[in-house]
Amino acid sequence: MYCPNCGTKNADHNRYCFKCGNPLPTMTTASPSQAPVQGASPGVAVRSGRRNVMWIGLAGIAVIGATLAIVLISRNGMGTLVDTTPKPTSRGELPTVALIAGPTLASTTISSGYVSGKIAFRHGCCEMYGVNLDGSGLVRLATCCPQATWSPDGTRIASFSAGDTSDIFVMNADGTGMLNLTDSSEGEYWPVWSPNGEQLAFSVGREFNRMDVYVVNADGTSMRNLTNHRAGYRKPAWSPDGNRIAFGSNRDGNREIYVMDADGSNVVQLTHDGTNNDVPKWSPDGARIFFWSDRGSRSQVYNLFVMSADGSGVTQLTNSSISLAGELSPDFKQIVFAADQSGNSEIYVMMIGNSEAVNVTNHPANDYYPTWSPDGTQIAFSSNRDGNEEIYVMNADGTDLRRLTNDPLPDDVPTWQP
Questions:
Q1: Given this model, what pLDDT does residue 208 score?
Q2: How much is the pTM?
C-alpha cells in the first residue's frame, strides 16, 4: 500500500509508514497516480517474505534522518554556487520540476570493482546485515534490530528492536558488544546520535500521536524526557554543536518545526504556516535548518525549504508537482529520491535549482530506498530486478552498477558507514 501522507510504498500489512511514520489506512493494492516511493535481542525468527508489523512503519524516518549534514545553496543552471544568503522565494520564481529519462542501463554489466567502505541493511523481516562494497565480508549484525544508524565516527551502530515495545540498542560496527540502552513497556524508536557520539535522542511511546523525545547516554545511563508533551514526534535532529535539537511535531495541530535546547528547555516553534512541515536537518554551521513541507502546493506534495535557525527567511528550494521528499547529497548540490510515474519505481537525481530530475536507474523493475555515499559519488539502493529485493550500488549518474547481495529473502534499506 502507499502512504497517504508522503506516498511511500509500504508492505500491505504495515500499520505505520516506513518513511514518515504516519498511520496507514486499511490495506489497499491500488497504486495512486504519481505516488512517490521511498524512499538485539537474539532469538527472533525470520519470516520469509514478510515484514514485522511494527518496526517497518516506525523505522523509515531513519532513512531520511540519516541524511548527511548539508548547507544552503542558491543555484544557477546546473548547480553553480552563486549565493549562500537565503532570499524570500515564491513558487512562481522556481521552475517546475520535470522527470526525464536518463541513459538506458538495463544492459549495464554488474562489475566487481572494489570500493572501500561498508553498508548495513535490513535482511528479511527483522535482521541486520553488513557487507563490504565489493560484496565480500557479509555478516549478520543483529537478529531483531534491522535498521542501522551509524555513529558519527562509524565505529558503532544504534538501532531499535522490532515489536510494539521496542528498545534502543547500541553495538560495535561488527555486531559485537551489543548493549540494551532502554527497557520500558512503551517502546523506543528512531535513535539519533549526538555529534560527539556520547548521547542518543529518540522517540518514546506506543501510539504515533502520543510520544515524547528522550535522550540517553550511549552507555545507557541518564535517560530523561525532554519534551514532556505527548504528541506526534518524529526523529529529532541535533545541531552541529550538540547544544540544540530540532524536531517536527503536531503538538499544536498540524506538523510544524520546533527547536529546543539539548536539555529540553527553551522550546521555540519555528514554522507557523498551518501546513505540514517535517524532517528538519541542520546546516553544518548551525545557522540554517532544511525541512520538507507541502506548503504552497496540494496536500502531501513535499518540496524542500530552508530557513534561518530562528525560523526567519524561509526559502523554497524546489518546485515539484510530485513529492520530492528524499535525501540531499553531502555536497548539498543534489537530491536523490524514488518515484513511481509509469507503473514501477525509479530512482531520480536532481540538482537543486534545476527543473529536471534525471532517471538514473531506467529499468522496468522496482528500485527503492536510495541513499548517498559519504562522499556523494555513489548511490546505494534496493531493487527487485533480479527476482527479489537485493542491495545495489551505482555511481551517482547511474553507471557502474554493482549488486552486493544475493539471497532468497529480501534485502533493503541500505545505510552507509561514515
A1: 64
A2: 0.75
